[in-house]
Amino acid sequence: MQDSETLGQLLAVLRRFVNERLIPLEAKVSEDDSIPADVLAEMRALGLFGISIPEEYGGLGLSMEAECRAMFEFCRCSPAFRSAFGTNVGIGSQGLVMFGTEAQKQRWLPGIASGEIVTSFALTEPEAGSDSASVRTKAERDGDSYVISGGKRYITNANRAALFTVMARTEPNSKGGSGVSAFLVPSGLPGVSIGKPEKKMGQQGAHICDVNFDGVRVPVENRLGEEGQGFRVAMQVLDRGRLHISSVCVGVAERLIEESVKYAGERKQFGQALASFQMIQAMLADSRTEANAARAMVLEAARKRDAGENVTMEAACCKLFASEMVGRVADCTVQIFGGAGYVADHGIERFYRDVRLFRIYEGASEIQRLVIAREMMKQGG
Ligand code: COS
Questions:
Q1: Atom 17 in ligand 1: which residue has the minimum CA distance?
Q2: Per residue in 101-118, pLDDT tens?
Q3: Which of 59, 81, 114 is the last residue of a domain?
Q4: pTM of the full predicted structure?
Q5: Is any ligand 1 atom within 6 A of the Cβ of residue 83?
């Protein structure tokens, strides 16, 4: 789906769905720490689980630019809703899309696109967070199988996942990324166990869990890419994922700006609307400027990626700027709402907690800076 008219229709449908269906449910989802099953079914029916999956495998086949535009629109609601399909669209499926064999794609992608299969990306470990090349989970070759053992940490959607992309070390004596391979591991295999969802600062309704692999036997056909190529698979998946998350940050910022403008127009102090005070106007203007800048950066990087260019540096720039931007916008929003921003009723404090994660997952801000600087040295600027 690449023509602008069809994309325009999708964006209009998403706007209506978010406004009418999701925003009214935000408080309940947060309180219950769960998204109702009928809402998940509606998201599946809208094709959201497969927006990035090629049409030949049952997805909507959006370009990166179109996917980012869809997220600008969809993410005007609690980020927990996006998380329900985020792994299917991003880090849980894109290794398969980019590096999968035709047989692997035929087997898994249609179910991922429809949302029948939830996917999850298992890279992080207790001792391998930002230093993701130091994974200790091992995969030992045994005839036509690999036997996987090790523990993964903070894995998004693990409790709902039917399929994991698991990064595991196939060369036991190797250090760093070179001895790591990627595997497609169905969650129903003997030896896979999932921990309880963690209690978190925000994004209730989205879940992360530990996952343990205890002698899990997977056939050689489930290896994704060549042996030893798994870290590259992970990094390329993350390059793309970082653009996706950046567009999520822009969407959330748009919602917060809308809320701020509305509240500043309605709320009166000293006999005037808050919006008439220049110190409030400055916060609104700064938020608008930064959100526009992030939007423009994301779209430019997405277009480059669609044109086949390497966007490692651009994706890291976007993730760094957009995640920090939405943090500042959320802070201004709390400030504009004042006491009402701090108490739970208006939901602003919930967004303030929710957006904190954007500076941490899919590569912390410090890692984005490291990636940017390294690429600058390589590229000479
Ligand atoms: N695309 C393709 N290949 C890449 C790549 C990319 N974006 N980034 C790195 N690689 C390759 C390198 O070319 C190198 O290959 P060779 O060994 O053949 O030279 C290999 O991967 C190792 O890369 P590097 O030396 O840069 O690894 P480091 O351990 O020094 O650093 C960082 C890697 C820190 C950038 C990486 O671990 C990272 O992104 N960490 C954050 C992880 C993260 O985002 N976690 C979030 C949880 S997952 S949701």
A1: 178
A2: 999 999 999 999 999 999
A3: 114
A4: 0.97
A5: no
